[in-house]
Amino acid sequence: MMSETKIRSMTGYGRGESDAAGIRFTVEARSVNHRFLELTVKLPSGWGALEEEVKKQVRRWVRRGRVDVTVTLEGARAASRKLIVDWEATDSLLHASQELRERLEISGELTLTDLLHHPEVLKAEEQKPDPEAWQSPLLTAVEQACQSLGEMRKREGRVLAEDLLHRTEVLAQRVEEIRCRAPQVVLDYRERLEERIRELLGGVDPDPDRLLTEVALFADKADIQEEVTRLSSHIGQFRETLRQEKPVGRRLEFLLQEMNREINTIGSKANDAQIAEKVVDSKSELEKMREQVQNIE
Questions:
Q1: In Å, how far from its chain's centre is CA 206?
Q2: Torsions phi, psi of 222, nearest 5?
Q3: Distance separating alpha carbons of residues 218 and 214, to the nearest angstrom
Q4: Three-state SS for 145?
Q5: Where are the alpha helices (DSSP H) in the chain?
Q6: Residues 53-109: tens digit of each pLDDT
Q7: I want to staple 31 with a disulfide (CB 3.0 to 4.6 A). Which of 27, 67, 88, 235 is the partner?
Q8: Taking 50 as the threshold, does the pLDDT of residue 3 lie above it?
Q9: pTM
Q10: How many CB atoms lie within 10 A of CB 153?
Q11: Could you give the 3-state DSSP secondary structure of residue 30?
């Protein structure tokens, strides 16, 4: 049975790496449950131009959930520093030196060593690679991370499916017990009503037609056959949905809402302690199923 289930959890983690020309790209993807698909991508400074490409890659693997993708770079070429001559500052320094010599009437010349040691002459400028030139290796790491994330979500999905299928079996058993108990509820009501009327009439048997009318009215009010049939149908649809390959989380949520509606109606109409007990058990199972379904893509 479990080999047929293909649902995915919305919870998972994946990691991918790619090396190219001295740069190592490391991508980590984490996902949790969310009503829709929400993507957050954290790229190194200056690499924002590739954010949309990363999101496109993630959308190929994930349909629903909150996904946080973090990209880090390592390596000698990930970021380098280059010394730049500030010619404006250099010219200004030479001009100031000339004015000082003329005004103070002193001799001396600025040497290259003097200029190189002056803090305003040389500037260290960080040189970063062109992001678009490294799009391919980056997306390779993203795909690896998404594939790893997808495998974990599949494993988590199989665990969820196993638990949900087990709970549908328990729920189906409770529904069958309710179905079998329902006819007896009317018979018990007739016996109680007949006995009560005899007590009120001092041992005289009640009028059969009047008794039949009262029992028929009760039977109509307490009839839960339609609700039981619909509930059984919803359980069957729930099981079949678990075997679909496409994202089914929202459909499962809808089916659970319908099942909960039917079981509530059964509880309000049945007017029987034994059925009420089974209704409580069924609602407990439905609540546990609802919690699990919230994690399904």
A1: 63
A2: -95, 5
A3: 6
A4: helix
A5: 51-59, 87-104, 112-117, 135-200, 208-221, 225-242, 249-270, 273-293
A6: 999 999 999 999 999 999 998 875 555 566 777 788 777 878 778 877 777 778 777
A7: 67
A8: no
A9: 0.70
A10: 25
A11: strand
Structure tokens at 62: 């994930």
Residue among 6, 2, 3, 4 at smallest CA distance from 297: 6
CA distance 142 to 60: 11
Residue 160 token pair = 């969820």
Residue 38: strand pairing partners = 66
Query: How far from chain centre, in Å, is Cα 102?
Result: 76
How many whole angstroms separate alpha carbon 157 and alpha carbon 295? 9
Cβ neighbours around 231 below 10 Å, total: 26
Q: Which tokens in the block code for residue 254?
A: 């809808």
**Is residue 255 within a helix (H) or strand (E), and if so which, with residue range?**
helix 249-270
Closest CA to 258 of 220, 297, 229, 219: 229
What pLDDT is recorded for position 1? 42
The beta-strand segments (E) located in the chain are 12-20, 23-32, 37-42, 65-74, 80-85, 122-127
Choose the weakest-confidence range: 156-160, 188-192, 264-268. Answer: 188-192
| DSSP structural state of residue 205 | P
Closest to 162 measured CA to CA, from 294, 10, 289, 278 = 289
